[in-house]
């Protein structure tokens, strides 16, 4: 990581976008969510489990695990389907990297066809406070939008990893350096 920093004005002039939190948003909410907040979160994303967001630049509170955001095609059909080989592969990946299922937030890019849906997804990713996003669909327009605020890490998709051992190796070698800083 480089320690070079641009002023916000210069950063904007070269095409960068300065993302900002919404007014009143807290990165760490210690209170229990209300029923209305829970319904709103579940209706906005394909997220399976929710744990409190964290501030990625600081030390995580005890017991809070960092979120892992995964973007890919057809993840809805694979996710938590015990009979699907791709889900079994993902289970092994989580085991190898010592990830808990509650850490994983996935977005199926097949459902992100309208600009409003992409912007909503970007907002959710920002609110999670992640430093990087695993991207299994580099051709999707949301990837370019996300690259303006977070690092997108291109990894092979699950289907490719099922049939190509080199794809699995690439996945592992790509993530190992990133995970050493968490």
What characteristics describe this protein?
single chain; 182 residues; alpha/beta; 4-stranded parallel sheet; 8 helices; 4 strands; globular
Summarize the structure.
The protein has helices spanning 8-13, 35-44, 75-78, 85-96, 115-128, 141-146, 158-163, 165-179, and strands at 68-72, 104-108, 132-135, 151-154. With 182 residues, the protein is an alpha/beta fold. The longest helix is centred in the last third of the chain and has 15 residues, at 165-179.
Question: Care to describe what's here?
Answer:
With 182 residues, the protein is an alpha/beta fold. 40% of the residues lie in helices and 10% in strands. It is built from eight helices and four strands. The protein has helices at 8-13, 35-44, 75-78, 85-96, 115-128, 141-146, 158-163, 165-179; strands at 68-72, 104-108, 132-135, 151-154. A four-stranded parallel β-sheet has the order 2-1-3-4, with no helix packed on it. It starts with 7 loop residues before the first helix and ends with a helix. 19% of the residues are buried. Residues 25-32 and 37-63 have low confidence and may be disordered.
What does the secondary structure layout of this molecule look like, with pairings?
Layout: H1 8-13, H2 35-44, E1 68-72, H3 75-78, H4 85-96, E2 104-108, H5 115-128, E3 132-135, H6 141-146, E4 151-154, H7 158-163, H8 165-179
Parallel strand pairs: 1-2, 1-3, 3-4
């Amino acid at each position: 990581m480089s320690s070079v920093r641009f002023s916000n004005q210069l950063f904007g002039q070269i095409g960068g976008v300065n993302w900002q939190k919404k007014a009143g948003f807290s990165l760490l909410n210690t209170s229990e969510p209300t029923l209305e907040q829970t319904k709103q979160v579940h209706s906005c994303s394909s997220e399976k489990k929710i744990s409190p967001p964290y501030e990625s630049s600081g030390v995580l509170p005890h017991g809070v695990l960092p979120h892992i955001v995964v973007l890919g095609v057809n993840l809805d059909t694979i996710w938590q389907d015990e009979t699907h080989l791709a889900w079994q592969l993902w289970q092994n990946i989580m085991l190898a990297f010592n990830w808990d299922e509650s850490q994983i937030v996935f977005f199926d890019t097949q459902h992100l066809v309208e600009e409003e849906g992409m912007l909503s997804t970007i907002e959710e990713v920002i609110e999670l406070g992640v430093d990087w996003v695993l991207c299994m669909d580099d051709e999707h327009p949301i990837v370019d939008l996300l690259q303006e605020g977070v690092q997108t890490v291109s990894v092979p998709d699950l289907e490719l990893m099922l049939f190509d051992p080199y794809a699995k190796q690439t996945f592992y070698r790509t993530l190992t350096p990133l995970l050493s800083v968490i």
